[in-house]
């Protein structure tokens, strides 16, 4: 019943529905024409699910401002006086969202590079002393969550790492 | 004599693929289009 | 058999429980995976009859909830014109369950995830087919459309849970859409075309996987054309058919722009199922050319198409050109004749008769002729002639100038074409000339050869009616709105420019003032 096209592509052995005559098909098409899928039938609320939701006082906006999905917003945030910290915040605290992607793009533009093994962003502090096809070695700044040994003082900060080897297969 | 196909809402001279913003066969508006992005697996830090 | 006692209540409470999990704020991976494990332990996901019952109930509850919201949300005084606002809460909740089964299902049964997906798809297909059969004109496709949209978006995400099986998942969707094609579920037609052309499906099945997805999508396009074909034979289309037709044009334009090679390689299949009256739609397909090809402007003065590099390359044809010939047991006779050119068993004189349909089929097909058989005969014979040509020029002692038309005179093939053009009646001749004109596409050996065949038949024929009909077949393809295939333009330009065809002195050019003006305006637009 498929005419010149062999039904040789397989598929579930679903009971073949009945074939109808043209008049029936036209009537059903007419009926379907009055029940077209609507644009919103295809849209899914882009529900952002915060990882660790905190009850936000009702005086605050209850949904994210659309601007966080605007690439230009993140370009501005990357500039002075905001600097990279906001980008790092979006990257680590808004995971699996478009803004994480935008923040990462902006960090990359500022020549930060992500180390997949340490989940850490590095930036050359000076030209590396050694560079080969597999890695580079030198002094880097990196953005890290630092816990002081007395555990009193901790938080995100930028630190210096000398003699670090950045293996390229860990470069995302 | 057919339809002037340029009136169907598709930018046939676009250098970009049309399917990315093809909203539906019934509409001559391009889809707003979810931003096309993939967050690499390693960005999901535990 | 009916569901076991209490089964439906059990499924209903599981759906409520699942809804509760989905409503939890934040990512609830742990809760999801516990619930999926519970379903496994409850025996709902073994892929057996219980699984079918489970998902059939879930579908029923979710659809019922959605349609029950029809009255609530949009007020009772809704006109049938205004689209109802439906709540998809239950549909979305149920849809998420499928993705979660794939994502959180026990990993050791990697392959069985796909089986569970195919099983759930088969249950869904049967449910839709039955619902459409029962409800007929009051069937509402929108809940099912929403269900598939959810699954398309979830299962085509790049989530690692499904990434590995993405091609098989696309094939599963393709088989599902094939089972729900308009000829089988006509009341699902609009939803169906929107799903098949969705940006989460069409580009994915046509991209990558070394084009393994192409045959599946080609089959879906054929499903659509076969459904529309009876309604497109007449020029006047009813509103719903015209709406579906315009939607089809949009999809074809996206394919023409983004995947032209796909249209190129399956043009023969599509021409089999597009009615001859659908000239513009067919032109879209025939105008496709490979993206890496640059077409010279057909109106370039003294354009030497014989010298184009591409003109000696054969086009890729993925359709089974000789399928119809084999099905009608004609292939052997054709091969025999092409090889020996003997009057075997009066092959030529019977040819016309063999192209006719039995009266019963003629009534359904709207024509007395077997169009796919004519298409198959014309292209197959042409391809054999081209092969002989290439063999001959490859072994020629003195290099044969491909520009000389003489090389085309593979007489066995031309015998067949000349027999057809002389013996067929007007309708048959029109269908035969259409089959030839359908090969006038981008620069390749088929375009070159069939362009020659049309011009040769025009020049050699001593009946004006034949010359008129050849002109008509070319002309009707040129006066419709764009696009126009490159091979069509260069053939028509050659016909009107080359004095050998003495075109402008043909009486049918002047059969009416507006016709004469039309010829002149088309000639001008062809430069």
Automatic annotation (TrEMBL), chain A:
<protein>
    <recommendedName>
        <fullName>General negative regulator of transcription subunit 3</fullName>
    </recommendedName>
</protein>
<feature type="domain" description="NOT2/NOT3/NOT5 C-terminal">
    <location>
        <begin position="33"/>
        <end position="171"/>
    </location>
</feature>
<comment type="similarity">
    <text>Belongs to the CNOT2/3/5 family.</text>
</comment>
